[in-house]
Amino acid sequence: MQESAEHPLWAETRFEKMSPSPTLDPLQRRIIGALQVDPRAPWRKIARALGEAERTVARHGTELLATNRVTVAGIENRQAAIITSFTCTPGASRMACEAVAQRPDTSYAYLTTGPTDVVTELHYDGDPTDILINQLPATPGTSHYATYPVLKYFKTIRGWRAGVLADEEMAALASPYGDDQPYWDHDGEVDETDRAIIAALKEDGRASLESMARRVGLSESSVSRRLDWLLRHTRVTIRALVEPSLMGLPVEAQLWVQTTPQSVEAIGHQLAGLPQVRYCAAIAGDFQLLVDVTLPNQRALYDFLSNKAWNAGATRIRSAVVVRARKRGGRLFDIS
């Protein structure tokens, strides 16, 4: 997946053929859109916001979750994160992607076009020396790697919306914990009970208070209070995870953006406000921003890259298409 010579503004991108995904009907997409706004919303709340019968919404929603076309999962927010890109030996990119995807500390693992074959985001607490010096170099199938510490998030996938709901519908679904949580508050101690609740949410972000109460051996009211504290203090974030292609957005790309230090904040906020952007982070290294975008086709990607509304301050943009996502939001996805 080697990249051609770069345009001074963005790299020439080679597109790999992607397997077709099953389609969803408009109501199914709207239910997923509702879960993006409030992942733990009861079916009754979603039905009321969408103007649909509760029984119909519950039937479709339950089926979407059961078939994993959408997954609601919690992800534990650690103190820091590092983006790592790998160049692989010939024929070994899938093995390398699988290796990083299986790590419990990675949130995503992508196979991409361009000069690097695999990109992942790794979250950690404390000193990352062992990760950087011993663990990452030992990733099987890789010949080179580069690391980019995350300095700031402008947008996470918790804030991404697929564009299937009207503004008034999203307002009716608004989560009490906000649209996105790019800033994490680590004040206060997390005990074993909290860790057990976080583990339950990682398995099922819509787990009921009753099931979590049984798991941790506390009353539902106690679990409700602990859950509220964990969410308000951003120790865990709950996200609806879906392949963008199922929402009519089959082209996904990562944009590595170079700019001047004084332009990072303005460009980051501009990008975060665009509906095409799923994720935007300021990073340390030879690139200053990493951006994930999803679009309906390759021409739309070209138009996005050419948009001077956000790229005027960029000195270079390297684009790489996401060929497969093995992991999203801390959960493994089937790429067979």
From TrEMBL:
Any one annotated GO CC term: cytosol
Q: Does the keyword Mitochondrion apply?
A: no
The UniProt entry, under Gene3D superfamilies, shows: 3.30.70.920, Winged helix-like DNA-binding domain superfamily/Winged helix DNA-binding domain
- Signal sequence interval, chain numbering: none
Q: Which InterPro entries match?
A: ArsR-like_HTH, AsnC-type_HTH_dom, Dimeric_a/b-barrel, Tscrpt_reg_AsnC-like, Tscrpt_reg_AsnC/Lrp_C, WH-like_DNA-bd_sf, WH_DNA-bd_sf
Does the UniProt entry include the keyword DNA-binding?
A: yes
Taxonomically, the superkingdom here is Bacteria
Give the UniProt keywords, A-Z: DNA-binding, Transcription, Transcription regulation
Q: What is this protein called?
A: Putative transcription regulator
Q: Lineage, please?
A: Bacteria, Bacillati, Actinomycetota, Actinomycetes, Mycobacteriales
